[in-house]
Amino acid sequence: MLHNGWWLVTSVYLVVDTGLSPAELVLVDSVQSAFALLLEVPAGVIADTISREWSLVISQVLMGTAMLATGLFTSFPALLATQVLCGIWWTFASGSDVALMTDELDDPGTMHPRPRPTTRWPRWPACSACCCSDSHPTRSSARSPSY
């Protein structure tokens, strides 16, 4: 996901390069959050009635536009507008991705939080001695390990 490191980079940019004051930073965050809150329901309606795929497409287009515009502007009003776009992008993405995966599986009960490996060793190499040994207090020494 492209936006995972976005908030850290944007925060540094807004403080160091554009020189926004703490009050302006709080205002930017407040306005962004307000737009995200107000548009959460309409974005969900679009995702549920039109298409979850198109909701994600809209989200990605808004994300790219907001990222590009944030790097191009240094004035406070323009940066405020770009962060409003970030709030709108978030509303189109939130819930649509999980709902789309659930629809594709046709059975939400089959979703697992993580892949299930066949052994414990590849998954926990650093703590395999403490977690998977027979001396661990939660593991019965009478059971044999399942390899």
UniProtKB/TrEMBL annotation:
> A Pfam family name for this chain?
MFS_1
**InterPro entries assigned:** MFS, MFS_DHA3_Transporter, MFS_trans_sf
Q: What is this protein called?
A: MFS family permease
Name its species.
Kribbella aluminosa
